[in-house]
Design a protein that fits this description.
about 290 residues; 14 strands; four-stranded antiparallel sheet; alpha/beta
Length: about 290
Amino acid sequence: MSVSGGRWVELWARVPDGGVVGELLTDGLVALGGRAVEERAGWYVTHLPEPEDLGAFEALARTVLRDASGADGIEIRLAWRAHEDWAETWRKGLEPRRLTDRIVVRPSWTEVPDPRPQDLVITLDPGMAFGTAEHGTTRGCLRLLDRAVGKGERLLDVGAGSGILSIAAALLGARRIHAVESDPLACEALDENLVENDVAGTVTWETRAADVAWLEALNPVDGIVANIEAGILTPLLAGFRAALRPGGWLILSGILDEEWISMRASATGHGFELETLDSDGEWRSGLFRG
C-alpha cells in the first residue's frame, strides 16, 4: 500500500447482529493495518493507506474480518478520504485516557488535562501495533498492573504488541521487563515506543512466539502479563507456572465473558488463585497469584 495521491481508504465494517462479534472486528481491522478504530452507530471504522488493487484489498478484508470475528455476512463499505481530512478527523477522535489514579495514556499531540503530581504518563500514538488503551483488554491490563507491579520486580510481557504494558510496568517501578511479540511490524512500533517513553534501558524484547519450554527457561520472574486470547493462553499456563517464582503474579487478558469461567478453571488447575477480576464491556482480565 502507499499514500500516493494523498488518499486513504476509509473502511467501515459491521456484523448485523453486533454484540461481542462486532467488537472482535476491531482486532481484524488492526490486523489489516488500521490506524485507529472508531465505533459509529454499530459500524467499526478505520483508515488505511491506499491499496494498489482495491478489489483484491476488499476480498482480503472480508477474509481477515471473518477469521477475526468468526461471523459470516459481514457488511463492508469503502470510501476515499483525502490524507489531510483523515489526519484531522483521526486526531479529533483521540484524547488522553486516565485509566487509574496515576496511569494516563496520551497521543503525542495532546496534553494531559488536570495533571496530578503522581501521574505516570504513557505517550503512544495509534498505529499498526495493537494496544493504545482503545481496547478493553489493554485497559484491563493497565488497571491490574497498577495493583500488581512491585518496585524492583523482574517481569515478562507475552504478546507485547505496541509495548504499552511493558512501558506501564517500567513506569510503575519494575526493574527489568522482557517483552515478546511474534509480529515483526508490532516489534518495530514497540521499539519506537520504548524510546519515546524513555524506558528502553528497562525493557528488552524479542520477536518470537512464546512456548512452554521458552517460558520455563526464564524462571524465576516475579510477574507475567499476557494479553493474547483464550485459545493461546490456555496451552501456555504450564509455562507461566514454571516461569513464576512462588507467590508471583499473573495477569491474563484477551478473554471474552463467555470464555472466562473456563479460563479461570484452567488457571486454578495450574495452581493459580484469582485475586482480582477486571471487567470492561465483554472483555475479562484476571490478576492471579501463584
